[in-house]
């Protein structure tokens, strides 16, 4: 499920896996704002490029794998 981005109001925020570290991130596909959890707001975001560079990775979408909702059958919060 995508959320509208509170930062650019144009992109949508989806859940991604940062493949190299197995971290989950929420990233806007338009402005590349990234959140470490589903608290999507204007305070807690980082730039995707900063997140990847902090981990010694290339700031590219190829580091990410989009996580599809249809494969997520174990959501403890719902
Ligand atoms: Zn955005």
Number of helices: 1
Question: What would you report as the Rg, rounded to the nearest angstrom?
Answer: 12 Å
Helix content: under 10%
Alpha-carbon distance between the termini?
13 Å
* SS class: mainly beta
Quaternary status: single chain
Chain-averaged pLDDT: 89
Structure characterization notes:
This protein has one helix at 48-54, and strands at residues 3-4, 12-18, 23-28, 33-35, 46-47, 64-66. With 78 residues, it is mainly beta. It has one domain. Strand 3 and strand 4 form a beta hairpin. The longest helix has 7 residues, at 48-54. The mean pLDDT is 89. The structure holds zinc ion (ZN). The site of zinc ion has 8 residues, from loops.
Outline the fold blueprint.
Blueprint: E1 3-4, E2 12-18, E3 23-28, E4 33-35, E5 46-47, H1 48-54, E6 64-66
Antiparallel strand pairs: 1-2, 2-3, 2-6, 3-4, 4-5
Bound molecules: zinc ion (ZN).
Residues 5, 7-8, 11, 28, 30-31, 33 line the site of zinc ion.
What attributes characterize this protein structure?
single chain; 78 residues; mainly beta; six-stranded antiparallel β-sheet; 1 helix; globular; binds zinc ion
Summarize the structure.
The chain is 9% helix and 29% strand. The protein is mainly beta and 78 residues long.
């Amino acid at each position: 499920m995508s959320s509208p981005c509170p930062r650019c109001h144009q992109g949508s925020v989806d859940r991604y896996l940062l493949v190299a570290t197995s971290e989950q991130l929420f990233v806007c596909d338009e402005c590349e704002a990234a959140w470490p959890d589903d608290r999507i707001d204007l305070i807690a975001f980082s730039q995707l490029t900063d997140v990847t560079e902090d981990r010694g990775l290339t700031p590219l979408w190829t580091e990410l794998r989009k996580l599809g909702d249809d494969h997520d059958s174990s959501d403890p919060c719902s």
